[in-house]
Design a protein that fits this description.
This protein has 237 residues and is mostly helical. 65% of the residues lie in helices and 2% in strands. The chain has one domain. Strand 1 and strand 2 form a beta hairpin.
Length: 237
């Protein structure tokens, strides 16, 4: 199938709004943490403040990585031109490492800020489990019905995926945007499991910021690729 590419200017489409909304989210996060560093402990040699900054930096780096990877491939075929048929796999390794690092850094932040939320630990644990259930079902549904490759954006690399139909199985029966709606509740679960105020603020930032990615990057790309605005539950044939 022949690949139709957008103009070079498409690379930056939506990114001014992306930068603006990111600045707003960082400003709100700063205000929420003005009194949150009264006890600046350390974990693995890093201070509470350092872990918190890292917990914001990793999602930002991840979503910038995805924007650059998707748009450079969509506009110029840059990834496959550079790495050939291994291009998507190489991109995917970076994607998964940054994705996993989100949780790792948040867990470390929760450990160094453990118990700061002011919620009784039994209640906090129950809330963590309640958030973990839909998140776990989302990841199961992605692997069972949707595929990790499509979740990473293989439709930006392989036009044979463009003829897929909507997935209506698993959690996708309830919403087509399950990964962003429910999958990111895993971060909330980590924060409540650690009963950590800073981890919860970071989880909220990360969950809000993934919707900035959807609005400013993914939705625009889907309109170009599919000629409409499909949800994430686009099936593969």
């Amino acid at each position: 199938m022949e690949t139709t590419r957008p103009p070079a200017s498409f690379f930056f489409k939506g990114q001014f709004l992306h930068a603006l909304l990111l600045a707003v989210l960082l400003g709100i996060t700063y205000v929420l943490t003005l009194t949150a560093f009264l006890a600046d402990d350390t974990f693995a040699g890093w201070s509470t403040r350092a872990w918190f900054i890292a917990s914001l930096a990793v999602p930002i780096a991840h979503q910038l990585y995805v924007w650059i990877g998707w748009r450079s491939q969509l506009c110029f075929g840059a990834v496959t031109n550079l790495f050939g048929s291994a291009g998507f796999s190489i991109y995917g390794v970076g994607f998964m490492l940054l994705f996993a690092l989100r949780a790792v850094v948040l867990i470390a932040l929760g450990c160094v800020d453990f118990g700061s939320l002011g919620v009784p630990m039994p209640l906090s644990t129950i809330i963590a489990v309640l958030f973990a259930i839909p998140a776990a079902y989302t990841f199961y549904s992605v692997m069972r019905y949707f595929s990790i490759s499509r979740a990473m954006g293989i439709d930006h690399f392989d036009p044979t995926y463009h003829s897929g139909s909507l997935v209506k199985r698993g959690i996708f029966r309830f919403t087509g945007n399950a990964m962003y709606t429910y999958g990111f509740l895993l971060l909330w679960s980590i924060a409540f499991a650690c009963c950590s105020q800073l981890a919860l603020i970071s989880a909220i930032f990360s969950h809000a910021y993934i919707w900035v990615h959807y609005l400013c990057t993914e939705r625009t790309d889907m309109i170009f690729i599919y000629g409409e605005t499909p949800s994430q539950g686009q099936d593969e044939q």
